[in-house]
Amino acid sequence: xxxxxxxxxxxxxxxxxxxxxxxxRARELAQDDAGDVVVLADEQTGGKGRLDRAWSSPxxxxxxxxxxxxxxPAAHVPAFTLATxxxxxxxxREAGVDARIKWPNDVVVGDGxxxxxxxxxxxxxxxxxxxxxxxxxxxxxxxxxVSWVVVGVGINANVDVxxxxxxxxxxxxxxxxxxxDRRVFTQRVLEALDELRDDLPGAVEEWTxxxxxxxxxxxxxxxxxxxxxxxxxxxFPGALVIDTGDERVTVTxxxxxxxx
Length: 260
Ligand code: BTN
Description:
The chain is α+β, with helices and mostly antiparallel strands. The protein folds into two domains: 12-212, 2-Layer Sandwich (BirA Bifunctional Protein, domain 2); 214-260, SH3 type barrels (Roll). It has five helices and 14 strands. The protein has helices at residues 22-31, 78-94, 173-177, 182-196, 200-210; strands at residues 12-19, 37-44, 62-68, 99-102, 106-109, 118-119, 125-126, 130-142, 145-155, 217-222, 225-235, 239-243, 248-251, 255-259. The strands form three sheets. The protein has a seven-stranded mixed β-sheet, with helices on both faces. It has a five-stranded antiparallel β-sheet with strand order 13-12-11-10-14. Strand 12 (239-243) and strand 13 form a beta hairpin. Residues 21-23, 44, 47-50, 53, 55, 57, 63-65, 106, 134-136, 152-154 line the site of biotin.
């Protein structure tokens, strides 16, 4: 089934059965002065994740990239990433999945605590969060006003967990609640994002309601070094506030690990 069929998105849609990376194509469109457009693909052959990782994108997932031209300073761009995580989480919850967000932008299932564990794709019990979706935001422009923002969203939708990389805990909508109508799911995500982008501070507040990270002990590898402590808050446009015991440290970027 082609996802684009009948999609009544608040953005212009460019659909590909197969493409290397929707983010790569979206950057190209952004350079060519395209307006608000979403690039959608059934399959990606060279999907990119954060920190230069590869992102497996088999047929059946929801792989999309949005080109936006917001009138915001570069420092506010992280808020789009958080707003997108909120949009995906809302749609996942509507589909019956108990989705949460791990700072800054992983949509996960399970909270990583508790004695029971839950089954992963191989039926083995795990206590960790299983990743359902990831977001990769890219931007270009001046510090006081960006020229474009590309928000890439990868949702493991109607795919087998066995077809996703096993080295990290992953899950899919198929695994959690069975196959979804990708057209409906995609439309919900895009409509939510269209609403949230007009109130980014509100989106960041809603983010805290779904946070899996807040209240946990965390270790964040930042460009400036490792910060460890209790995650106590997220502040606009997306910084994590960590109480180290001695002081409150605000981190704006990095890889976050939840500790017990
Ligand atoms: C992450 O590492 O968590 C971010 C993953 C982002 C994947 C999406 S899939 C659609 C878009 N195109 C890409 O190449 N990457 C993003």
